[in-house]
Amino acid sequence: MTETTEDRFLDGALKLLQPAKGYRAGADPVFLAAATDAKPDQRVLELGCGVGVALFCLMHRVPDLEVVGVERNPELADLARLNAKAGNFAAEIITADLSELPVNLKARSFDQVIANPPFFDRTRGTSAAETSREGGRGEDTPLATWIDVAVRRLAPGGTLTLIQRTERLQSILSLFDERLGSIRITPLSSREGRPSQNAIVAAKKGGRASLVLEAPLVLHDGARHDGDRDSYSRQAKKILRDGQSLSDVRLVHR
């Protein structure tokens, strides 16, 4: 049995089980959920859902979603099911490799597909010691596969939302080719004036609007880390503490 901890998200509104060791979700899936512009009654698929942090943050904000999460690690998938039951979330969690989805899932389409693919390509380097950490941070399924599977599951006009390293944006945009358009990129900057290491990318299946590069979302106040105090910016707190959507937070601050 995997040793777990119960961790608080959205200022304690969500209490989710995670493995005590290995890959542990932090702020990234919360930002992914905030960036997903889902509406009530829409169908949502997450590829690589882990213990369900992004899904359940999204379901906490948007009611009446039809939600499916795919996770290949059986222990993480089991924790996602436990978290769904504990939070009374009607989410279907499927244990499968995204490159080998069940036939019945391949027959379904979704209004929203979201994913937080591993940030680093481990096929040419060393692996993390913990299997779950390696699966979460180190890639052995190519990014091209993540995007291709996501596009195939999107309904026409549906939106794919990813969070990924900015250094991989060129690869992501090339993989979108003619299938995805109306692209919006939101850089995430740790502090004002610093280069963005991560970015949120959203694109519509069949979209034709021009690419939009949003102003960076600055995550922390101040020029540098100052001890252990909470330095999250006001915008970041609205997302991480209050569970607000990225679009609502941006609208208020424009």
From TrEMBL:
Matching CDD domains: AdoMet_MTases (cd02440)
What range(s) does the Methyltransferase small domain occupy?
32-165
Q: Where are the transmembrane segments?
A: none
Concerning InterPro entries, the annotation shows: DNA_methylase_N6_adenine_CS, SAM-dependent_MTases_sf, Small_mtfrase_dom, tRNA_Adenine-N(6)_MTase
Q: Which GO terms describe its molecular function?
A: N-methyltransferase activity; nucleic acid binding; S-adenosylmethionine-dependent methyltransferase activity
Query: Cross-referenced Pfam families, in alphabetical order?
Result: MTS
**UniProt keyword Membrane, yes or no:** no
**Could you tell me the EC number(s) of this protein?**
2.1.1.-
List this protein's GO terms for biological process.
methylation
Keywords, alphabetical: Methyltransferase, S-adenosyl-L-methionine, Transferase
Which protein, by its recorded name, is this? Answer: Release factor glutamine methyltransferase
Question: What gene makes this protein?
Answer: prmC_2
